[in-house]
Design a protein that fits this description.
By secondary structure, the protein is α+β, with helices and mostly antiparallel strands. The chain has seven helices and eight strands.
Amino acid sequence: MSSWSCDGLNSCKAKEKEGQVDQELSAKFESELRVEKETRDSDTLPSSLKGFLDESDFKLEDTPGKEEVLLTRKFGDESIRVHFSIADLNNTDQDPDQFDEDLALTDEEADEAAATNMQSGGGNTKGAINQGPTKGGNFNVAPEDSIAASDRPKGSYQEPGEGDEGAQEPSFPATINVSIEKAGKGTLQLEVVAQDGAIVIENVYYYSNPELPDAKTAELDWSKRNLYAGPPFGNLDEDLQVLLERYLEERGINTALALWIPEYIDWKEQREYISWLSNVKAFIDA
């Protein structure tokens, strides 16, 4: 039902009745805000996150309300930019019940595969490539699909949980774009994934035009798409793979960063969520 309001010029218009659920919805938002603020302090950067920034050469650029985060630093004559996004955390959300069902199914398949191997007299052979997710949510990878730890140089990264009894719950994979620019000589861009303290390179690109890595126009984006992207990183010679990993490590793209980025994403996502709750509640109350 509508009521009517009139001004001094006898002009009348219908005034809609206030929504029936506005107050209830606002109260629910207020309750959610209170719970989130009590759960974790999102206003103060945790000491572990702050300590990394204090000790490293990276400078943080984080605009409230935006998903993208940028780290920058200089290394000799190189300008290094590290991009990542809190969208990675939201993209990993999954129904816990469905996740449990997937794990149960995986266990059954693993038991069947083990029984088959035992009957054939074989163990885990090189033919068993990428046989589905493990309990930790990762994938079993055959030896030829990865670099053996013995082939890696001393000080190189360990696989998540390697040599670590009672390891923590695996973190989510965070996608990172690393751009290394030399003035007048182009840009090297690497797509990597950080998870459980490991840096995994997925692709390596070279651009003679430094504007192409972060193409901001349709023309630049089209030019970028038409360039030869290079082979998949896993197809490169193993020595090249190891040296490229060490190349990144020298520039601070290392275990410390791989541990820091997922933690920062988690903290920022919580902060942005609280801000979103406040903004929506304020709109409803207006």
